[in-house]
Write a structure and sequence with these properties.
With 357 residues, this protein is α/β, with parallel strands linked by helices. Helices cover 28% and strands 25% of the residues. The strands form 4 sheets. The protein has a 5-stranded mixed sheet, with helices on both faces. It has a 4-stranded mixed sheet with strand order 8-13-12-11, sandwiched between helices. Helix 2 (65-80) packs across helix 3 and helix 5 runs parallel beside helix 6 (277-289). The two termini are 15 Å apart. Bound molecules: coenzyme A. Coenzyme A (COA) is lined by residues 43, 46-47, 50-51, 136, 175-176, 217, 236, 238-239, 241-242, 245, 275-276, 279, 310, 345.
């Protein structure tokens, strides 16, 4: 039976560590431009308490999103063992393109995927390179989309990368900016013969809610009145995103498992988008609740948020790679295990993929 199989993974975790303490000299403002009266240290302590984030990674100033995308992509290709010239597609999920340090300007032409193809030196014209913009769920969306391309008989081998340098598009006077991070994760996905019970994508689900929810995560001016008026930064209505995610994500995850014909008790690991530790715990608890199980099994959900923050599209492929490679010592994924990828973000978009390793 032909299945969509992940045959290699790769990551780029930028080396610059931005600690919570590094924000202590920041002046934070509210959305009306008024300075927050609490000292920065108490704001940061509260931030850690409500998100679980201690530190995050920022790309070095001379490195761009397509550069870290290429690093992760190259590693995924090496791990898969395929000849890069046999790829049918290179897909890069991101939201802001390349943003040169200090410029706050998205560069999306040429596509990041074309830039990555160039950096990797892949020449075959039939290997098409394009980007997907689906908010933080972009990389999971690229899995779903490639699975459909495979079933349509239009591709057999793809390189899927999620890469973002959110540190370049944050308003540092907004305390929510401390959530965001940089990073890249990738996989090679191949359509290949897999025995019954062998590896492959088992089910998918996706939703977009863009009525009242469309501006829950969007672009807005700095909270600092002396900032350049033309510049726009990533903004979110955090509480609304939080409530939205708790309400909809568990159902989207269940719908994916239902489509796969898999019961939650068969799932070995849940790899969920990392934006807020407590939010993720509550989402997973509610998912189990849909099956009449009151508590999620301990260790079901590997978390990287404490040291990687929210690296958007890079989060899930990075997490998957780290667990597969044994770099998260408390977690293990073995051949035959069933994992559930799930993400939520701007759009608002939600998606999930059920995968047998
Ligand atoms: C942004 C977020 C951390 C705010 O947490 P919250 O608990 O919803 O915050 P609330 O607005 O209810 O405020 C609770 C308290 O935290 C404070 N607070 C809110 N945001 C904060 C922040 N970023 N840093 C520090 N303190 C913050 C509030 O001032 C309030 O303080 P008080 O109790 O002294 O009045 C949280 O809503 C969140 O993580 N949302 C989801 C974000 C997400 O998933 N984004 C996806 C991006 S792809």
């Amino acid at each position: 039976m032909l299945s969509s199989v992940i045959t290699g993974t790769g990551i780029c975790i930028p080396e610059t560590i931005q600690l919570n303490q590094d924000f202590e000299q920041h002046k934070f403002f509210d959305e009306k431009g008024l300075p927050l009266t609490d000292p920065a240290k108490s704001i940061i302590d509260k931030f850690r308490k409500i998100t679980g984030i201690n530190e995050r990674r920022y790309a070095p100033t001379d490195i761009n999103t397509s550069d870290i995308a290429a690093v992760a992509g190259r590693q995924a290709l090496l791990n898969s063992g395929i000849d890069p010239e046999t790829l049918d597609q290179i897909v890069v999920a991101h939201n802001f393109g390349d943003v040169a340090y200090g410029s706050i300007q998205s560069q999306n032409v040429p596509t990041l995927a074309s830039r990555v193809k160039h950096i990797l030196g892949i020449l075959r014209p039939e290997c098409i390179a394009y980007d997907v913009l689906v908010g933080c769920p972009g990389w999971v969306h690229s899995l779903i989309q490639s699975h459909a391309w495979f079933k349509a008989g239009m591709a057999k081998k793809v390189l899927l990368i999620g890469a973002e340098t959110l540190s370049r598009v944050i308003d540092t006077s907004d305390r929510d900016s401390m959530i965001f991070a940089d990073g890249a994760g990738a996989c090679v996905l191949e359509y290949k013969n897999s025995p019954q019970g062998g590896p492959g994508i088992l089910g998918t689900s996706a939703q977009t809610h863009s009525a009242g929810e469309v501006d829950y995560i969007d672009m807005g001016k700095s909270y600092r009145s002396d900032d350049d008026n033309a510049a726009l930064y990533i903004k979110m209505k955090g509480r609304k995103v939080y409530e939205y995610a708790l309400k909809h994500v568990p159902f989207a995850m269940k719908s994916c498992l239902d489509q796969a014909g898999i019961d939650i008790r068969q799932v070995r690991k849940i790899l969920i988008h990392q934006a807020n530790e407590k939010m993720d715990e509550e989402i997973v608890k509610r998912l189990y609740g849909l099956y009449g199980v009151s508590e999620a099994p301990s260790g079901i959900m590997p978390m990287s948020i404490q040291w990687l923050g929210n690296s958007s599209v890079a989060t899930i492929p990075t997490l998957y790679h780290l667990v597969l490679q044994g770099e998260m010592t408390e977690h293990e994924i073995k051949e035959g295990d069933i994992v559930l990828f799930a993400s939520v973000g701007a759009g608002m978009n939600i998606n999930a993929v059920c995968y047998r390793v």
